[in-house]
Amino acid sequence: MSMTVEPSVVKLPDARAVRVTVQVVNKGKQAMQLEFPSSQRIEVLVKNEAGKVISRSSDDQRLDKEQGFLVINPEERLEYTAIVATRDMTAGQAYIIEAFFPGFDELRASRAVMPTK
Predict the structure, then answer these.
(1) CATH code where residue 106 lies
(2) How far apart are CA 13 and CA 64, in angstroms?
(3) How far is CA 33 from CA 20, 94, 105, in A?
(4) DSSP H helical ranges for the chain
(5) pLDDT at 76 over 90
(6) Domain of 58?
(7) Distance between CA 83 and CA 18 in Å, rounded?
(8) Which residues contact 8 (CB under 8 A, 6 or more apart)?
């Protein structure tokens, strides 16, 4: 799984949100099936230096309880994008942006960011 964060340099207060894109590629020879308990496919968290969650991408989404599943064939990829607000970030402090597929601990990526003025 790979993750990108845009903009790569977060300048406050100009950047009111960051765009987080995650990609999963099936490098195996068999199709992978991912089952989800709701309409949510990814979750993106912003954590402060102490590890406290200060923002979640799902806070601004309506999630249906409807179960779903996806199949990723060999050499195919999935890509999802989420927007996370920067309103609780402070310039000069480090934050961890963590993206994952709920229910799949192995499908997780994180990146450190330090907003500037």
Answers:
(1) 2.60.40.2360
(2) 33
(3) 23, 36, 15
(4) none
(5) yes
(6) 2-113
(7) 6
(8) none
- Short-list 85, 87, 82, 73, CA closest to 102: 82
Please state whether the peptide bond connecting residue 7 to the residue before it is cis, i.e. omega within 30 degrees of 0. Answer: yes
Give 97-116 pLDDT, tens digit per residue: 999 998 888 899 999 999 99
DSSP assignment of 16-70: SEEEEEEEEE--SSS-EEEEESSS---EEEEE-TT--EEEEGGGGS------EEE
What are 27-67's pLDDT values in tens digits?
A: 999 999 999 888 788 999 999 999 999 999 887 767 677 88
Number of domains composing the chain: 1
Total count of residues recorded for the chain: 117
Query: Are 5 and 20 a contacting pair, CB within 8 Å?
Result: yes
